[in-house]
Structures are given as structure tokens and as C-alpha cells.
Amino acid sequence: MARTELLKGTLDLLILRTLELEPRHGLGVAERLEQITRGTFSVKAGSLFPALHRLEADGLIAGDWTTNEEGRRIKSYALTAAGRRRLAAEKKQWARIALAVAQVLGEA
Amino acid sequence: MRLRARLVALWRTLVRPSALDRDLDDELRAYVELVAEKKIAAGMNSDAARADARRDAGSLIRVKEEVRGVRAGHTIEAAAAEVRWAIRGLRRAPGFTAAAVATLALGIGANTAIFSVVRAMLLAPLPYRDSSRLVFVWSDMTAIGYPRAPLSAPELKDLRDRTSRFDGFGSIWSTSAALTGDGDPEQLRVGLVSTNFFALLGADAAVGRTFAADDESTDAPRAIVLSHALWQRRYGADPSLVGRAIRINGQTTTVVGVMPAEFRLLMPPDAAVPDDLQAFVLLNPQALTNGPRGQQFLRVVGRMKRGVTLDEARRDVDAVAAQISREFTSYGANGRRFTIVGLQEDDVREIRPVLLALFGGVGILLLLACVNVAGLLVARTAARTRETALRLSLGASRSRLLRQCLGEGLALASLGAAAGLATGWAGLRLLLALRPAPLHLLDAASIDGAVLAFTMATSVAWGVLFSLAPLVELLRADPMAALQRDGRRAAGSVHYRLRSALVIVQIALGVVLLVGAALMLRSFFAVQRVDPGFRADGITTFRIALPAQRYRTADAFNAFSRELQAALAALPGVTAVGALSHVPYDNVPNWGGPYLSQPGQPESTAVMADNRAVTPGLFETIGVHLVDGRFFTEDDDARRESVVIVDDQLARRSWPGQSAIGQRVASDPFSTGHPVVWSTVVGVVRHLRHRSALEDLGDQIYFSERQVQRNPMAYFVRGGDPAALPAAIRRTVASLDGELPIAEVRAFDEYVGAARASQRFASVLALTFAGVALTLAAVGVYGLVAYATARRRYEFGVRLALGAQPTHVRSAILREGAALATAGAAAGLVASTFAARVLASQLYGVTAGDVASYAAATLAMVAATLAASWLPARRATAISPIEALRAE
Fold first, then answer.
1. HEC states along B388-439?
2. What is the pLDDT of residues B417-472, one digit of tens each?
């Protein structure tokens, strides 16, 4: 299956979406992303981590350090209240855009 | 909420950047390992899985860079990191840093010092209310050699009555007065001012008040306003002094006010109004308005009405001059002309071009300094080409390199600014210590906020500019070529040519400044050797004023003077004593008036002469050259008809080809403005340069003090122990009259030194400039030759390995320096012949084309250049060829 370039700004929305149900670490976010888009989107470390840190700096997600069974420090991210509000707003917005795009393409 | 999160993030970024970086490392390492574990779980062997995972993650350096890029407060953090990085780099290269910072300290320091002077003297307004509306009024008597003469009292009244564009005119004249009672008698420098003088300037008293109209009335008590310094020194700043009476010239006078400590009397330097007057009393020109129109002694300041331009005011005053020229025949055919000049402009009339030239000069110095620093940075960057290429290929972005250049430039500029401020402060102290007396505005110069802002702005601007210089080198850096070890040789020739041109310009400018300094120095020595017509060494002077109440008659005056001269002459070691109505180069207003030298000569053709009164013995005491006739004796007193001694300049002008002895001159001993007293010439002396050390000014007429009494008189005592003499003089005077104040007991040499202070000032400045320029040019040559030598180390290594003599290699390098020196010196000599013409008006006893100065300047510069190339030459041959070859 051909992989699609992520639209700019879409990555943030998708990351928030992957964290909607439970906190995940960086690789977990990447895997979940690939899973929910059924392999359409795959995200490399070079885009993933800057995005995570930007969202964290904006207060939309919060990082938390835990230690796993092997004693390795793992940083996982969870949605904050602000992040949830943003996700809801973005979802609505996205639905409108998707609808508009679909209409334009359908009529053509 | 969001704001708090951002602030917390910002706090972490700025305060704990290393903890954040550690976290990021952990996070990324965990990511890579988790990916690898998945791959192992999927059946890969562990090494391949790890390599695969790392490849998938891409360049971790770049990922980290990008993550840092999105952090809150990233820009600040990045800038701080660049500066930290830059400072680390600078600490690792102390030689480079010291050279760059010292260079900048010189350039920025010179700019700071001169800018603070320019600001104080040219930019800052005078400390008076609305000072831009103040003008100084001169009487233009160019036709008889006095382009800037004072005004007479009737003329002040004319200006007040007949102009329409002015709020008012005030006047001041300075003299001295005796202050007695409450301690030792003391002679004060007193300003005689019109009632409105302080109101006109907009200066208020600190305690009490300035003069008011009531003080003018004849039954009002005499009023005096004291300077802050006198009030503090003599009265311990006692506020209750205001309203009390003190004795001035033996008369009861009420202190009505004290001026503020910061009040300065800033009149044009040639107005002969000292800036440190100790007290002010009223001299109401109204009382003198019927006096002679030729009795010009008032220094007049006018205040233009709001919105009136200088041109309008000038037309207003011109019209008055034209009117009175028509109305009063005493002005003769030439009539009267007034010139008005903005007070501030007139204060800095002489110094302004010098200051602007200086400011331009320090600008050039700073430019030279920055060229040097840019050169040093380029050389440093070139030496690090491989390091740079390595970092580029490992994923460092070019914008990161740009930031690092800026960081290094700004770190250097900040260090340079700090060192420059210290240098500038020291430089300013030096300037103030050397300031010639007339430049009183200079005292206000200080390194204040505006000067600091100026220094910071220049430093940052230059820091940015010269940090961009190495970018040319960086941006062309092709990582592949550079890593293949020969890359850095390809880019060199363009820089070398450009930098050579810059260094040649530096040498040329250095030669120009050196030639200027040599000319100024030769002028200074010529001035030192000038014979002013008298000898000042070994003479102690002091001034004494006899109160008119107790010394009412000429006989009383003369008796005291004779007794004092005799008593002083009897002091141990004293060989000669005399008295003169002025000390040469003092700041007492000049006395002079018109004279006639032919019977029946019309007064309108009268020439002006300086008038002085001298006692017998004075000319002998100060070593005046007698050209013809005789000096005064005790017989030249009231019993005989009036006699004068004139200078050879007057004798030549009046009676060319004849002996002056026995000729008759009509002159003006009492400054009435008219030649009223006919006298016989009994002697001719060589012209005394008593007002300017460098120029023969007006003709001179010397009256016998025994016939024409002047008060105060300055006494000149030759010989004696200079340390013990002041006390002996005080004792002697007190034994004759315990109430007499003595003023200004000091060496005659001090006056002469002060008169030469301008030349000394200019010489010191010129020498400092030349020294700095010489240093900068030498550093520039050193930087360039060292750079070129470093690039050719491999080549030199090969040559030495193949058996070349170290001396050959050294002379090859020295030849490069010599080529630079030759080109620079040649260009500099040509430029100097033009530049020296600008200087011509400042020169004395030496022409602008003085060969010795040019030769000395060239020699100094060539020597400095060769010395600067010798160091890298020695270093190039000092290391072993094997080392040089291996280093590549």
C-alpha cells in the first residue's frame, strides 16, 4: 500500500487522537498511528519527537516518566484537559473540511 | 492553564537545559531500543536489529536539533548556548581573544572618549533655559584688526531700545574686588552684571535670589550674589549668610543669593569672561549710558523672542547699527557693525572643526580595528574548515553555523565594549587632565547613559558585521572537498587579495596619522622654543588690589608700591621685582584703546593698541628686550610730563625708518574710547607676546604706573626659594597693610604653560591617534601574514625538508610584509600631502611639507610592519619539517 505524506498540521491532530483513550510513549504513538490509519501513515522519529515536544510545550499533552520492568526510563504522554478540548474542536473542524472536500471532488 | 504550562516549559528550558537534554537522550535511546526489541521479537538477530532501528530513526543529532527547535523559549536558549559556546571557544584561544579584544578596546575606547567630548561640547545644549534662543553680540571692528570686540554702554541701550525681535539684552564684565572681614582678606574674581543678566540666561539662585529691579535704586543696599564654591569654602555653606552684609572693596554689601553649584558661566573663550567667577555685583549700564561710545567693555548676551530665527534677529541688529552709525559722528566713516552668533555655536567656534576631525579620525580607527578583528575571525574560521565540514556532514544546519558566527562576533564585541569602556574612561580622564583652560565645556564630558548607548550600539553593529565576515568562508565550505584535506587551499586566494588590500589601506591611513602626529609634535617643540619677548622661568607672581577708600591719591598708591617693591627685593635670594597691570596669558579682560601717532591725525584713522601700566624694574625683572631708548625709572612720575614705552611693531607702523624716541603719541590710558593723552616715547621694546604665544597681536603702549595708576597690579618676583616665597610674600604684604588681599600667588611659568596647553593637547591627541593607528596596522599585518603563513605551512615543510635554509623561508615571508609596507607607505605618503594641508592652520614653525616628519612617519610604519611579519616568519621555521608535514 502506498504511503501518504502527512498534511501539515494533521500530524498534531492524529497524535492527539492516538492519546484519546490512554497514555502512550513515543513508539506507542507511532505504532498506534500506523494501526488506526491501516498503514497509510507512518511517522519517523524526526517528525514524531519534535511534534510531541511542541504539543507538550503548548500544554496539550503532558509527559510523564515511568520505569519499565527492565529498569529503563520511559516517557509516556497523556492528553491534558486543554488537549481534549483542542481535539474536539479539531475533529469538528476536520469533519467540515472533509465534507467540503468530498463535495467538491464529488461534483467534479 | 496554557500560559502556566508555557511558563513552566520556558523555565525548564532556560534554567535547566542540561536536564532537558538528558531526558531527551533517554527518550530517544528508549525509542531506538524498543524498535530494536520489536525487530528481535520478529526474528532478527540482535546486532542487525539494533543497526536497523538506528537507521530507521535517522540522524539522532538532527532529531535532537529539531526537538530543541520547538521548545518554549528556544530562541533565548539557543542564543545563550551560542554565546556560551563562543566564550568556551574564545577561552581555548587566549592569544586570538586577547588580540581581538585589545584591538576592539582601542577602537571602541577612542570612540567612547571622543564621543563623550563631542556630546558635551557640540550636542548637549548649554545649561540655560531655552538656550537655543541665546545669542552673543560682538562689535565687528575688522577694519582696525578687532573682528570680535565688546560693546559700549550706550550701544547696549540702543540694542535694548531699538530692536523688536528680542526679549532682552544683558551684559557682563569681569574685574576683581577685595573681600575683607570674616577671615583673611581675599581678592575675588567678580562679574559685573546687568540686573537682568541671570533672568536672561534663565539661571536661578540656589539660595536666596538673583538681582531684581529694586537693587538698582541708589538708596538700596549694595547687593552681591556669591558663587557656590566661595559660599562653601569661606562661609561653610551657611544658609543664614543670605541677607547678611559682607565687606566688598571696603563697602558694606548685602548677600542676596548664592548660585547653584552646577552654574557655569559659559561665554565664548575669547570674551575674556572667566568661567569661575566667585561673585557677581551689579554694574548698571543705565548709569553709564551717557559714557563714550568708544568705551567698549560690555560682553552682551541677547535672548531672541520665541520663534525668531537667527537671520531675522541679525537683520534687526544690523538695522540698529546702521541707524546709530548715521546718528553719531564719533563712529567715523566706517560706522558701527554688530555681529550676533548663537551662544552655543560661538562657545565652540574654534574647537568644532577640530572635534569633528577627531570624531572622523576615531571612526577610521574603529573601522581599522574591525577590519583587523574580521581578518582574525576569517583566519580562525579558515583554520577550522575541517571541523566545520565535519559538523555539516553530521547534520548541523547552516543556520546553526551562522548563529555560531554571530554568537562569537557578539561575544567578542561585548568583551571589546567592556574593555573599550574602561579604555574610554581612562582616555577621557587623560583628556580632562590635559584640557586647555578655554575649553571649559569639556568639564561636562562624562560617560553617561547616552555615551553608553552609543558604545553599545556601535559595538553590536560592528559585532554583527564582522561576525559575518567568516561566513563567506563557511558558506563556500564544501564538506566533501574539505574532508579530502586539500579543500582549504582552493578558497584562499580571493581572501588573501581582499585582505591585502585592506591591510595596505590600514598602513596608508597609519602613515597619514603618523605624519600628522609628527607635524604636530614638531609644532609643539617649535612653540616651546618661541621667544615671547620675556623670560618666565624662576619668577613668582601675585596680584594685589588697593582699596580706593584707603589709597585715595596717586601718591598713596605710588608710596605703597615703592615700599612693597623694596621690601620684596630685600627677601633672601630675590634679585629683581616689578609690577605690571596684567599677567601675560591671564584671563583678565584686555585693556586697550585707539592711538594717534601723527600731529593732526584724524581720530577716525586711529589704530588700536593694548595698554599696560608698568612700574620701574618690571621690564628688567621679566627680561624684556630693549630695542631703543630706555626703561622707566622712579623719576617718571607725576612731576614729569607723560611718557610711554612702545613696542617695535607700533614704532615701525607709526614712524617707519625713523627713531621712535622723542616722538609723540596720543593714547587712551583710562579706556575712554578716545585718544586723549599726548605722551612722549622714551623707549622701544621688542613686541611682547602677552596675549597669544604664537601671534604678534595688537600694537602695545606701556604707561608708567607712577603716572597712570592701575588697580589691581600683578607683582613679579625673580629669584628666591619658590617653596618659601609665597609665605614670605604674604608676610611682607601683611607687614605693610594687614587688610590687603593677595590673589593668585603662582609661578609665572604656569601662565605660559597654560598658553601652550592647546598645542600640548593637540600633540598628545595626535600622538595617541598615531600610536593606535600604528598598533592596529601592525596587528593587521601580523594577522594577514600569520594567516598566509599558516596556510602555507605544508609548502614550507616540504621546502625545509628538501633542504631549503630557514633564512630563505623567513626572508620569503618577510618579503611579503615588505611588499605590504611599501605599497601602504607609498599610498600613505601621497594621502598625507593632501591631509597635511587640512592641518596647515594648526601648524607652527613647520610647513605641511616637512620632509623630516614624512621620513620619520614612513620609517616608523615600515619598522612596525617588518616586526609584525617577523613573528610569523620565525614561527614558520621554528617547527620541524616533519611536524609540519604530519599536521596535514
1. HHHHHHCCCCHHHHHHHHHHHHHHHHHHHHHHHHHHHHHHHHHHHHHCCCCC
2. 899 889 888 888 888 887 766 666 677 777 778 888 888 888 888 778 777 777 76
Containing H/E element for B875? helix B851-878
CA dist B317 and B155 (Å) reads 11
Number of H helices, E strands in chain A: 4, 3
Q: Are B137 and B310 in contact (CB under 8 A)?
A: no
List residues bridging with B717 in a β-sheet.
B540, B577
Q: How many CB atoms lie within 10 A of CB B695?
A: 8
What is the distance between the alpha carbons of residues B321 and B559, in angstroms, rounded to a whole number?
A: 46
Neighbouring CB atoms inside 10 A of B705's CB total: 27
Surface-to-core class of residue B385, CB atoms within 10 Å of its CB (0-12 exposed, 13-18 middle, 19+ buried): buried
Residues of chain B whose C-beta is under 8 A from some C-beta in A?
Answer: 1-2, 4-6, 9, 23-24, 26-28, 30-31, 33-35, 56-60, 62-63, 66-67, 69-72
Residues in chain A within 8 Å Cβ distance of B397: none
Residue B790 CA to residue B810 CA, distance in Å, equals 13
Who's near B269: CB < 8 A, 6+ residues apart?
B347, B350, B438, B439, B440
What are A's interface residues with B at a Cβ cutoff of 8 A?
25-27, 44-46, 49-51, 53-54, 56-59, 65, 72-75, 80-82
> How large is the angle between the packed helices B806-839 and B492-529, nearest 10 degrees?
50
Instruction: Classify each residue of B29-41 as buried b or exposed e, where b means 16 or more C-beta atoms within 10 Å of its C-beta.
Output: ebbbbbbbbebbe
Contact at 8 Å (CB) between B581 and B618?
no
CB B538 within 8 A of CB B719: yes
d(CA B647, CA B688): 8
Do strands B592-595 and B607-614 pair parallel, antiparallel, or not at all (unpaired)?
A: antiparallel
Task: Give the up-direction half-sphere exposure of residue B831: CA atoms within 13 A in the CB hemisphere.
Answer: 21
Of all helices (H) and strands (E), which one includes residue B347? helix B343-347
- Angle at the Cα of B607 (from B601 to B611), degrees rounded to 5? 115
What H or E segment, with its residue span, contains residue B838? Answer: helix B806-839
Strand B626-629, strand B677-685: pairing = antiparallel
CB B763 within 8 A of CB B845: no
pLDDT band at A4 (very low <50, low <70, confident <90, very high): very low
Give A48 to chain B, closest Cα distance, Å.
Answer: 9
Select the residue of A25, A45, A74 nearest B63 (Cβ to Cβ): A45
Mean pLDDT of B76-88: 73
State the complex-level ipTM.
0.81
Residue A50: count of CB within 10 angstroms of its CB: 20
B153-162 and B310-327 are packed helices; what angle lies between their axes, rounded to 10 degrees?
Answer: 120
Closest CA to B203 of B150, B253, B134: B134
- Number of helices and strands in chain B (H, E): 28, 22
d(CA B698, CA B668): 15
Q: What angle do CA B758, B761, B762 make, to 5 degrees?
A: 85
Q: Across the strands, what pairs with B246?
A: B253
pLDDT (tens digit, 9 = 90+) per residue, A5-15?
Answer: 455 567 888 88
Contact A73 B26 (CB under 8 A): yes
Q: Which residue has the cell 581578518?
A: B375
Burial B243-257 (b: 16+ CB within 10 A, else e): eeebbbbeeebbbbb
Q: Taking a C-beta distance cutoff of 8 angstroms, is the pair B621, B351 a contact? A: no
**What CA–CA distance (Å, rounded) separates B545 from A76?**
97
